């Protein structure tokens, strides 16, 4: 009969080997929480009360110091015999009584000031001691937070990945991972979307400033028709220069937004006419003034058209941003719920290993049913922030400012009407035709096949773009 050595026991699992450390951590945290719950709120209230008392006593001491200073001045003036009170007392024959009264009032003020100083010093000492105790409790509060982080790290180290001994924990972990993936997919477009929205808003503000400056130049151009004032000419040129600078700033913002999202359409012309101050002064007559006014009105017309399109783009961008933020917040809430359920299940398992009772973990959250999908790809859903109608159709409605007369402008050399305007021909205006190319007034959706899908949801794009027509 052969000898069979005794079999070695199987090595302890990761859960079994970590139960002791887990028990020490949760016991320490429980003791700290009990101490903090019993003392921290009372200590915070006590410190706040002492701070109020110190403030009140300091204000009282300041008033007493002013009173002491005043009483000392009156007593010294009475004692010198040179003050008005001293001279009046001597004339009335009661100088000695007045002097004794002033000195007594001064001594009383000094005594009250000293008492207040001592009381303030005592309150400050008590406040220092109470603050030290409060800082100790807050240090323990921070220690409890660090221990909780250690517990979370311990649970993650023990249960991360497949755990054949606890398949129910794997279900919670899979749900948490799925919720986290959806949260990332719903949030990765937000930084670019926010930046594009900010740039479009800045461009709108700059273009609004350009329109106001050009309206001012148009008013000065009207006045210049009936005057030869150099001041009016300078104001007109300054208005055009200011409008050009603001329009250039708006174009810079639009170019930056288009670099992040190449599908941002061209909003129209931002050109502002450029006058010549020397020529306007040297050849100042009613015909050149009317010619400059017509050029200003044409630029104002173009800026108003562009502002109308840009206003629609800003509104559309705000809608896209709001939807993405809402989806990201919903996905974050689902992920937090799944992570809390996973932690509760892990705590339940560890408590069972320790032989302790505790609350049961909630059921595995249905992440696939409750979590919102990430943003759909461009052009899939027209309801997800379709471009404004004026961009889709190529039309440019007027919004405020200068409204151009119907019909095209007259040919060069036509006789102007009074007030420096021009007389348009009768009939309906022609339809607007956007410039050729991809930068016209029409939005062109991206070409090519739709992005691949994963996990039942479209893959997130590296940057957002205005969706085209479905």
UniProtKB/TrEMBL annotation:
Annotated region described as Disordered, given as residue ranges: 1-20, 353-470
Keywords linked to the UniProt accession: Coiled coil
Chain segments annotated as coiled-coil in the UniProt record: 106-157
Biased composition (Pro residues): 1-13, 360-377, 446-470
Biased segments, Low complexity type: 378-402, 412-425, 434-445
Highest taxon listed in the record's lineage: Eukaryota
Protein name, per record: Uncharacterized protein
